Amino acid sequence: MKIEKLSNKHKEAIWQFLMNHAYSSMFLLNNIDKIGLNYTGELYSGEYWAAFDEKGEVKGVIAHFWNGNLMVQAPEQNVLTALTTYFLKNANRPIAGMVGDGEQTLYVLDQLGLPAEAYNTNRSEGLYQLALEDLQLPEKALAEQFKLIPTSAANSQLLFDWLKAYELEAFGGEPSEEHDEHIRNRVSQMQEGDFAWVLLNDGDPVSLSGFNATLPEIVQVGPVWTPPEHRNNGYARITVALTLNAARASGAQKSVLFTDHPAAAKAYEAIGFKENGSFHIALLKDTVEMSKEPVSA
């Protein structure tokens, strides 16, 4: 097995490998699609390494992104072990966290050997899949009182308040000016892009849904947020269903999402999602410089 740092010349082979594991590789695919395999330090860019067998076929990929997060796709344990060991010996930037396939991510985190208190969040969620031809629109979704608007047409302060509340609830941590700046950047990206929408109920904004990774054929749902005062009315279910219906009309064929919230899971299952796997999210309180040798927990 040979491990090699990647560049754009490897894109076709890496893309084909990741598409064979698309449901748990959407962030990787999305980032490669947007900016390629060369690291620039810009949004979406990362450093990538791959393991190749003796025939030159890709067996696994590990990536370290501009924001410090790690991602891996290496279904075979010996490949995962080799990539993790190689990365930890050659890491040259701080690590901020890791997201990806549940079992694979847990293995890498174990090798990092960081204490539980180092994380803001460190949890596994159910990975849910849906063929969009099987999407079931809620009965109320097409009622005249509901209207879906793009975030570009929504109030910026509302989006800031909602996204801040969403991240603090979903990922932990404490309010800070640094976090506020992060949220302001997210709002700008959301309003400039074409990947998030707000549901209006008789003109009042009640819920938010978007896609945090997109390909022409597959969309990954997130974030989804309904303020506490509007919960238990089915708004999130309606918002997600309407956004997926629009994606289907634009040619998307599949969707994926992850959640560990029972009420959210029930809502997603009601529109057709089925659990098939796990997805792990681990975000550190502070970035960590890694030693050059892996550490067992």
UniProtKB/TrEMBL annotation:
Molecular function terms, GO-annotated: acyltransferase activity
CDD domains: NAT_SF
Superkingdom field: Bacteria
Enzyme class: transferase
Transmembrane segments: none
Record bears the keyword Acyltransferase: yes
E.C. designation(s): 2.3.1.-
Database matches in Pfam families: Acetyltransf_1 (PF00583)
N-acetyltransferase domain residues: 149-295
This protein's UniProt keywords: Acyltransferase, Transferase
This protein's name: GNAT family N-acetyltransferase
Organism, scientific name: Pseudovibrio brasiliensis
